[in-house]
Amino acid sequence: MKANIKILAAENIIKSIPQSGDKYSAEIIPLDSHETEIVEKIACIQPDIVFINMFGFGPDAVSVINSYSSLFTESRPCFAVMCSFVSPKLREELEQCGAYKILTEPYSSERINDIIMHVCLKKQQSNSWKIVASVSTIHQIHDDSKSLDTEKLVSDILLRLGISESISGSQHLKRAIVLAVENEEMMYSVTRLIYPKIAQEFGTTPSVVERRIRRAIAAAWEKSDSSVLESYFGHTIDLARGKPANSEFIAMVADRIKLSRRENERIAVVR
Length: 271
Known about the structure:
Elements: E1 3-10, E2 24-31, H1 38-45, E3 49-53, H2 61-71, E4 78-83, H3 88-97, E5 101-104, H4 109-133, H5 138-143, H6 150-160, H7 170-182, H8 184-187, H9 190-202, H10 206-223, H11 226-233, H12 246-270
Parallel strand pairs: 1-2, 1-3, 3-4, 4-5
Helix pairs in contact: 1-2, 6-7, 7-9, 7-12, 9-10
């Protein structure tokens, strides 16, 4: 079954967007470059993807993304920002505000299709999660970790700790924990193995990955109640010392998942 993708796109890129593919059909809504109330339009239409020019007659893309994210923390589209030239400073600003992709001219249909396929996959995973959640409590879903893939389980844990997908660095942190769970060698080689791998996957640098993950972890320590952190990590953390290092946090969550799975396997054998 094809996914229905709603796309809000600047007029100068609409012709480059494929309206359908093997796994999706797209509804494309034009975004006039003269519009100034862009945040309100995004909120009204609720698109899955927004292709927006970095600079137009209204607010720039960074302002739009930051404004939307501050108003609507639970649901946000995938923002793809288009510009003729990207300076290092501008790239850093776009990465910090949570832009998924930066597109430079000429706009490649292949890259655009990759963005759409990324959103299709996220929607598919979201729908699967909703189906599972409708027949079980979140607590039961977490305990029955064998029935979930690692990525969904990590997403649930991070959400419990106050790290939603709207927080910059959450995707990098999630990927780091998944790698640590699936490969023990990586869990003990965060700087040497995990950062470079994630950097390659996301098209950035290891130092940017490290910085984003650090910010996401800081968000958990700032937003989460101390009782939530203690109930989840037990005596493995010292709240008085402050937030753990990236490698500590990644290892703690990865260990928690592995222990939970081993316990479930032991219970299954006893039964």
